[in-house]
Amino acid sequence: MSGTRLREPARESAEARPPAARTGRLSAYGERYGLVLLLAGVIAFFSVLPASSTAFTSTANVQSVLASIAVVSVLAVAAVFPLACGQFDFSVAATSLVSSIVCAATMSNHDALLPVAVVCGVGAGVLVGLVNAVLVALLRLNAFVITIGTATLLPGLVQWYTRGVDIVRGVSQPLRDFGSLTWLGLPRVIWLVALITAVCWFTLTHTAFGRRLHAVGSNASAARLVGIPVTALTFGALVTSGGLAGVAGVILTARNGGGLVNSGADLLFPALAAVFLGATAIDPGRYNVLGAVVGTLFVAVSVSGLTLAGAAEWVPAVFNGAALIIAVAVSTLLARRRGGPLAGARQSNR
Amino acid sequence: MGTVTTASADGSADSTSAAGHPTSLAVSGVNKSYGPASVLRDVSFELTRGHIHALAGGNGSGKSTLIKVLAGIDRADSGVLSRPGHAGTDLAGFSPAHAREAGLRFVHQDLGLLPDMTVAENFAFTRGFPKGAGRRIAWRKLHETTESLLGRFELDVSPTTVVRALRPADRAMVAIARALADDGPEQVLVLDEPTASLPHHEVDILLEGLSRRARQGQTILYVSHRLDEVLSLADSVTVLRDGGVAATRDARGLDQLQLAELMAGRSLGTLYGDEGPASSAARPRPAGGPVPVLEARGLSAGGISGIDLEIRAGEIVGLAGLLGSGRSTLLRTIFGAVRPASGTLTFEGEAIAAPSIKAAMRRGIALVPEDRLADALFHESSVTQNITVATLARYVRWARLVRSRERDTAAGVIDDLRIKTAGPDQTVTRLSGGNQQKVVVARWLQRAPRLLLLDEPTQGVDVVSRADIYERVRAVAAAGTSVLVASSDVEELVHLCGRVVVLRAGRVAAELSGEAVSVREIVRYSYADQEES
């Protein structure tokens, strides 16, 4: 019943309310940049708040906040690819753990050169992505379930391989430097993150590949009927997310100075939260790369500010959870009120 | 017989119409605007007891808003609803509870039934479950009351049948019976496009059921844009156009064209945009090239078997048949979306060895699928992106999509096909059904197809957009594109096609051309079992 009722406004609004479009555009801008403005507001708030202002604005803090988002934001960007084509990938964080261990182990246990270790680390990610892709895209198994499976399985394999011991010996010094030093005042890893973000943003928003990926996510059946290779794109998206998770794993090794057995896998929910938060901004209603990065920044900045302001340990978690719920609720309700994209769209005639 | 009411009816509810039928309900002076845009302007109409009053209008006429105002879902700015013996109710403060109290009972297009539950359970969800000892559900009692209710509505349906198993017309009648189940005050049944999702042959069954209810004294407000239904069913009709009442007429004096012109507010020539209800002799019969554009021999796939078909350049061929006769499967097989089990497909003299959608598109075949929402539209995307999605490669320069060029193309298409939208960046779901369909058609015309496959091209499309789509289909055919139209609208095929292939149970039952292309013949072969091809 609600299907018809929700769809009705959409049917008439096009002709009935053109003047409303102007106010609509204003609110569209508000929606688009809401999260960015909120981020600016949070920064401004902690910059003037006496309890945190000095420490918050210090170079050291800015650098530490940026460095801390490196791995999460790459994982968030990785997760955008499968989400764009309508598939979940819950295994990105576990994949980064595997890549981090593989990267460290090739140096530590096999005395490999840094480039070889990096290739092995990223390759491990691609491999996991391939396994996911075969199961999900080719065998058409449910991605939600399959990637939870891989996400559970991989840390177990890591425990088996490492016997629970971190790999810190023999890790190349240039890689450690890359993880801890700065270029031009910014953490070196951030430059890589910026590059990855830029490339992925361009790929998803400005190429035919990205457009087609979103088309698959929007309506796979319609995509197939306009000649879009749905299986191949889904396959590609999962391999890409695996590969990017592999890159995140190498960054993780660089940041940690080695392969830590208990590091990485816990980043799944922060990364996904950032993606969902990001889907309410920049290109509202779509999983998008810039939104995801703004999402990670927003979370990191508020955690840093709250910590420096002396908030109790539980506050950041509550703050982040609430921010996610509110952002998604507000943007969904706004879209629904506009009679927007998702309102009853799936109602079929048959 | 029918009420003759003018747009400026004073709304006094105790008035009686000429023939002495008491007024059941009157609505007067409804105004509603969103910001500066006025959606309803001084809308008034009256319902006569035991009459079927149709509310007709194209997409965007304000029809749906008016229904929502009456249902109490949308608030009117002003307006009065009055019933005999009651003080008028201000529509500005109208709520769903008010609507119930006023005796208004709504059945919407999707019926609001839970398909996997039984008829009795569906009744119970609105009326409440009768409870026995320990608050358990008294199933027997529920089934008994439901049974007697169904009996009252002359519905030969068991309370324990799962709704999904009912035939579509019965489903609609069950929803109607449920809406009218409580013996409230005098009730007015409001039906919002009840036949939109019914297969063609089920429509008559439902309409017959409705007429019977009306003869028993049920007042019905029937909202539809299907001209034939409005005219065959209704006693009187109010036509809405651009938010105002264009006319209220006795239905008997109207024909389809007049009604369509009232809805459109302009002369339409004819409903089908051609030179007249097909004198088939005048229909162009293109010579075509020596080699057919498409040739199917013994084509079989799931649901179709042994199909032979030939289409020549510039020809518009119709594909008729009942639901499940294999129309869609045949189109999809030609398009490479369904793998043929056996038989051959030859396109422009070349055998299609490995059929796939990609190969079909490369050859110049295009398919406008039957189910727009499920199989054609990218709901969250803009009009522009929906138009360019099948031709994306054209807009790529140095790996980058040049959006400004995409938008230019879309703007041209919007003008050209008269698509009503706020602009190229509008989300496609916000367009009306007819305009969405134009977007999908435009998407494929961008590719300048050699063979255009149309599956139910005007389903859920208003009469004005229909004419636009027909005009465009004729234009591309005149330019040499072959068109294969599958439709359950027989009139449509008769007007549009020079040749009609009738399918029955997955086989070609008949191929009609020239004078033989008529509603009678198509219907005869669609149903007939007695004669084999």
Describe the SSE topology.
The complex is a heterodimer of chains A (350) and B (533).
Chain A: H1 2-16, H2 20-48, H3 53-56, H4 59-84, H5 92-108, H6 114-138, H7 143-162, H8 173-180, E1 182-183, E2 186-187, H9 188-206, H10 208-218, H11 220-225, H12 230-256, H13 268-278, H14 289-308, H15 314-337
Antiparallel strand pairs in A: 1-2
Helix pairs in contact in A: 2-14, 4-9, 4-12, 4-13, 4-14, 5-6, 5-7, 5-12, 6-7, 6-12, 8-12, 9-10, 10-12, 13-14, 13-15, 14-15
Chain B: E1 23-34, E2 37-48, E3 52-56, H1 63-71, E4 78-82, E5 89-90, H2 96-101, E6 104-107, H3 119-127, H4 139-152, H5 168-179, E7 188-192, H6 200-215, E8 219-224, H7 227-233, E9 236-241, E10 244-250, H8 256-264, E11 294-301, E12 304-311, E13 316-320, H9 327-334, E14 342-347, E15 350-351, H10 357-363, E16 365-368, H11 372-375, H12 383-388, E17 396-397, E18 400-401, H13 403-416, H14 433-445, E19 451-455, H15 463-478, E20 482-486, H16 490-496, E21 499-504, E22 507-513, H17 519-527
Parallel strand pairs in B: 3-8, 3-9, 6-7, 7-8, 13-20, 13-21, 16-19, 19-20
Antiparallel strand pairs in B: 1-2, 1-4, 4-5, 9-10, 11-12, 11-14, 14-15, 17-18, 21-22
Helix pairs in contact in B: 3-4, 5-6, 14-15
Region (Disordered) (chain A): 1-21
GO molecular function, one term (chain A): transmembrane transporter activity
Protein name (chain A): ABC transporter permease
Kindly provide the name of the CATH class of the largest domain in chain B: Alpha Beta
How are the strands ordered across the major sheet of chain B? 6-7-8-3-9-10
What's the CATH topology label of the largest domain in chain B?
Rossmann fold
In the CATH classification, which architecture of the largest domain in chain B applies?
3-Layer(aba) Sandwich
Report the average pLDDT across residues of chain A.
85
Helix-strand topology string of chain A: HHHHHHHHEEHHHHHHH
Number of strands of chain B: 22
What spatial order of strands do you see in the largest sheet of chain A? 1-2
- Unreliable stretches of chain B, pLDDT < 50, 5 or more residues? 1-19, 275-283
| Count of the domains of chain B | 3
The helix count of chain A comes to 15
By oligomeric state, this entry counts as: heterodimer
The biggest chain-chain interface is: A-B, 51 and 62 residues
Sketch the major β-sheet of chain A.
2 strands, antiparallel
* Average residue pLDDT of chain B: 84
CATH architecture level-2 label of chain A: Orthogonal Bundle
